[in-house]
Amino acid sequence: MRLNLFWKLGLAFFALLIAVLLPVDYYAERTLRRDYERAGFERLTSIARVALSSPPPVSSFSTTSRTPSPALREWLTKMASSGVRVTVITSDGLVLADSQSDPQTMENHAGRPEIREALANGDGLSIRHSVSINGDLLYYAARFAMPSGPPIVLRFAVPLLTVNDEVWAFRRRFWLSSVVMLLVTGMASLLISRTFSRRVERLQSFSRRVAEGDFRPIDADRSGDALEALAVSLNDSATRLDRAMRTLREERNLSAAILGSMVEGVAVVNSAERLLFANEGFVGILELDSPPQPGRSLVEVVRQTELIEAVRDVLKGAPRVEAEIVTGTLRQRFFAATVASVKATENSGAVVVLHDITDLRKLERVRRDFVANVSHEFKTPLTAIQGFAETLLSGAMDDPQNRVRFLQIILEHSRRLARLTDDLLELSKMDADRLALEVDRVSASQLV
């Protein structure tokens, strides 16, 4: 990480600096070249004005001989002493004299652009390659009107090599200073990028510590830049995250304590029918040897098909399913199972709650037995009363001996029904906690 970021910043700075220097060099070279060319033409123009103000004697020109006269050679030497090349050309392009070449070896110059322009406009400029001296020159031609006959063209030239030398000298100085600047700024940028990368590494190490659960704050630099603001922001985030994690842990511990202390069995199943959580009540109800590991399949833990089907119905989309399961063989226990759907942002599942209803079922069985017994106790006297009453109505009323006996039996069973009714009323009062305590004197011999 250090070398990667370090070199990235350093190379990026170098690339940016070179990207700035290259166009600067390009435009500076073009501007300098134009300035030197303009200065060269201005120099040639000044020399041409001097030459036109003091032209060679008219008698020194000969349109028939290409050998310059002594007066013309003297004039050429005088003009060439300023460092320029001077050429005298007729209007038809014939070279009469040249300060650097033999005019007899020079070709016709009628097609030269500066000559044509000078004959047409009075003066002409051009930059081109010279065949005579095999080099690039700046040319300035001026038309000189003869008293009689066609005009003569006086051409002045300076080597372009001088301009190139000046430009290259400037470029050498420019690049030398640029290299020095690159070295100085490069070292400074490397030091800055190294410091920057180390600070970034500290922030990265801090974020790694926070991810591992270490929320100790990082010492922020007093640089006042964006990295310091980032470090302060990360410290604030770590503090809030630490507070949130503590709250979540407390809530988780509280939930675990509540679920662990519940008598009811509670379990959480995900959409893949795998147990995510089961409290001690759930383990005890299903008589498991040990708490199931999170991720185990529901069918591996639960043997009650009613409970499995209820969970599957909820996972298929039912919001709530209630069922009843029975555990044990010799000693059966009854549980009411409630399965409810749980939907999170991305995952869904079901919550299973098992409530022990064994006592309720026992009470229901006792109640059924009690009703059956009471019904039997009521049926015996009622049957006797009904039977003897029907017998009396059938003619036994006329038999004095049996009539009295039958009526006594009816009276005895009626009293039995009254006693049963009084007992039921007493039981009802006991169940409603409304039975009044009766205090009475009894003989001790009756209790022994």
UniProtKB/TrEMBL annotation:
GO terms of molecular function: phosphoprotein phosphatase activity; phosphorelay sensor kinase activity
CDD domains on file: HisKA
Top-level taxonomic group: Bacteria
Recorded catalytic activity of this chain's protein: ATP + protein L-histidine = ADP + protein N-phospho-L-histidine
Matching PROSITE patterns: HAMP (PS50885), HIS_KIN (PS50109)
Pfam families: HisKA, PAS_4
Keyword DNA repair appears in the UniProt entry: no
Enzyme class, spelled out: transferase
GO cellular component: plasma membrane
UniProt KW keywords: Kinase, Membrane, Phosphoprotein, Transferase, Transmembrane, Transmembrane helix, Two-component regulatory system
Ranges annotated as spanning the membrane: 6-28, 174-192
Residue stretches making up the HAMP domain: 194-246
BP-aspect Gene Ontology terms: cellular response to phosphate starvation
The EC number(s) this enzyme carries: 2.7.13.3
Residues spanning the signal sequence: none
SMART domains: HAMP (SM00304), HisKA (SM00388)
Residue ranges constituting the Histidine kinase domain according to the UniProt record: 373-448
Gene3D superfamilies: 1.10.287.130, 6.10.340.10, PAS domain
Protein name, per record: histidine kinase
